[in-house]
Amino acid sequence: MKKFIAIIFGLLMMSCVKEVGSLADLKSDFYELQNRLIRMNDTLIVNFNAYQDRIDSVALLLNGKRIQNYTLLDSLNSTLGLNQLEINVYTSEGRINGKTKLPVLSSIPETPVEFEVIKEYPHPKELFTQGFFFHNGLIYESAGQYKKSKLGTYRLGSTDFVQEKKLNDNIFAEGCALLNDKIYQLTYRERKVFVFDANTLELKETLQMPAELREGWGLTSDGKQLIASDGSQDLYFFDENLNFKRQIQVVGNVSIYDQINELEYIGGKIFANVWQTSYLLIINPESGRVERYYDLKDLNEANGSDDVLNGIAFYDGKLLVTGKLWSKIYELNLPD
Q: What is the mean pLDDT of residues 53-80?
């Protein structure tokens, strides 16, 4: 009972600590951490460049867990990407509190893939490519834009549709993926996910987009779950009923990548386009670390801000890429 009373008294004392001043008063570099290149396996150091004699103690919380100043960042206390960092500095006058986001980058640089164009195929140029994969001898493609959105299939080398499912004019279609003989198709801002029969393209049901996604962008599957992007640095994992499982951030050696778009799961890795760039990233699905990348600027058919690289498919041990309103599909080698 005495121990319980002591704990309650301690909590009351902490809650009654007077808030005084700011970290700037102590010349701390705490808020500068968000702009530094801090990497996994670096040591987290918060400096105080003046008035050290005023400080009684410093308490740090990283993602809600207590750590010490001069802590080595590792997978046990931090994640790649943005982490929540809080500091409490106790002085004789009271407490000074601060909160910031701590970006943690990969300690291993991502490396470029050497590739060649093995073959070129025609691509239906009217398609504003949002989702793109190969299955059972057919290309499955989700095309976007209002009044033009559809889901269609065609044979590689042809631009004639085998099947075509047009959507309502008020729908902007986004990424699509195959899971358990069903095709899931995201919508941009309509908060709907359409589920089609993979063989007939018959609409089986319409699901509510998970709340975790701010918008619908890219979608793929590892055969067990769906993986989605929403234009941020995050990738989200869901089961076939769209129940949220987990998420990762896409992170390299010098930056956190955002605007992650079309996705494809190949050989245990996530391949992803970065919107309005020529980069195709290869991402570790457990940590979010960008391991390798393609720079496809020489294939770019873009004439404006919209017709950008955005289509990745696995085909016969190789890679197919295309873009919005592009006239060609390019077959490339996968990394060694």
A: 91
